[in-house]
From TrEMBL:
<keyword id="KW-0350">Heme biosynthesis</keyword>
<feature type="transmembrane region" description="Helical">
    <location>
        <begin position="269"/>
        <end position="287"/>
    </location>
</feature>
<dbReference type="GO" id="GO:0046872">
    <property type="term" value="F:metal ion binding"/>
</dbReference>
<keyword id="KW-0479">Metal-binding</keyword>
<feature type="transmembrane region" description="Helical">
    <location>
        <begin position="6"/>
        <end position="21"/>
    </location>
</feature>
<dbReference type="GO" id="GO:0016491">
    <property type="term" value="F:oxidoreductase activity"/>
</dbReference>
<dbReference type="GO" id="GO:0016020">
    <property type="term" value="C:membrane"/>
</dbReference>
<comment type="pathway">
    <text>Porphyrin-containing compound metabolism.</text>
</comment>
<feature type="transmembrane region" description="Helical">
    <location>
        <begin position="325"/>
        <end position="345"/>
    </location>
</feature>
<dbReference type="InterPro" id="IPR003780">
    <property type="entry name" value="COX15/CtaA_fam"/>
</dbReference>
<feature type="transmembrane region" description="Helical">
    <location>
        <begin position="159"/>
        <end position="180"/>
    </location>
</feature>
<keyword id="KW-0472">Membrane</keyword>
<dbReference type="Pfam" id="PF02628">
    <property type="entry name" value="COX15-CtaA"/>
</dbReference>
<keyword id="KW-0812">Transmembrane</keyword>
<keyword id="KW-1133">Transmembrane helix</keyword>
<feature type="transmembrane region" description="Helical">
    <location>
        <begin position="101"/>
        <end position="120"/>
    </location>
</feature>
<feature type="transmembrane region" description="Helical">
    <location>
        <begin position="132"/>
        <end position="153"/>
    </location>
</feature>
Amino acid sequence: MYVLQLGLIGLSIALIPLLYVKTKGNRNKFRKLAWVAVFFTFDLIMFGSFTRLTDSGLGCPDWPGCYATATPFLAHSEIRAAETALPTGPVTFTKAWIEMIHRYFAMAIGVLIITLMVLAWVKRKELKQSPWLPTGAFLLVCLQGAFGAWTVTMKLQPIIVTTHLLLALTLLGVLTWLASRQEIVVPDGTLLRWRWFALGGLVLLAMQIALGGWVSTNYAVLACTHFPKCRGDWIPPMDFAHGFKLWRALGRTAGGEIIPMDALVAIHWVHRTFAFVVIPYLTWLGVRLRRVTALRKTATLLLLMLLAQLLTGLGNILLKWPLPIAVAHTGGAAFMLLLLVMLNYHIVTAGRLARAQTRQHSPQADSLGNAGSRSV
């Protein structure tokens, strides 16, 4: 019964953006809904970061509800007992509400994606686009829900939490690509020369995000509290074997012992060092793409977000990981991913359209067309 109540809560939240799209004076409502889904997914990623950084991931230690109820209100006695037994533990009323709000909005996004998928299949002739991309987004959100459950049942195991974050960012990328498909792109064959450079930037950013997720889920941000050196050295003592052992409990080695500080230093140092690869590359890419009129706005935003990301990263280190800056750092990474997906889509699509136009107007195509008209 409580699962049905949870579903109704998620549906009620989803009705707000759905009604907004329905009543908005916009002919292409599918396009509007796709961008709304992107917006809500981005917000959920930031709220998920807030949930993790406030240690609220186990605010309700079961799934999908809270002590087998739909809201913390109904689990009042269980939460009170857990908080009384361990006042500084993972279960409090505040943490329970943070965790459940995160789940409510995740269900609402699921409803939005289901709506997109249904519309894509029903209006596939009108949209003139394959409905398999929104179908893939639906499958992805189902997988994301499974990892959300495992995050709780496996007690915040770092590899599960990191994968949960990466799947959320992948979903954001897929929805951004889907929304970008609804935009008008002017053919431009010259953009294809940037195709592999833009893809390379996306890959490098994805790798850096994965390393950053590993830092966050292992709580290794404060393993190095100075910059540019780490613990007084350019290359401090590090334990890569324990630090990058993927399958282990939070704060433990694979053997169950307390994870050594040198392992946390290794996790932090690799993420910090790889930034010296990613930042120069994306800076170069953004500066070059700003010269292309059609890409100037997106490339400029990428450069601004890159600067903001550098500042929030330094702020996390020098200011001892304050919550607002830590959440902003996650949001900045997600927004940079969104921008790079948009750039990749525009470059690939503009190039393909230009090639298609070239083939249509080639002499061979003209001769075939003339021969066909004569035969008729």
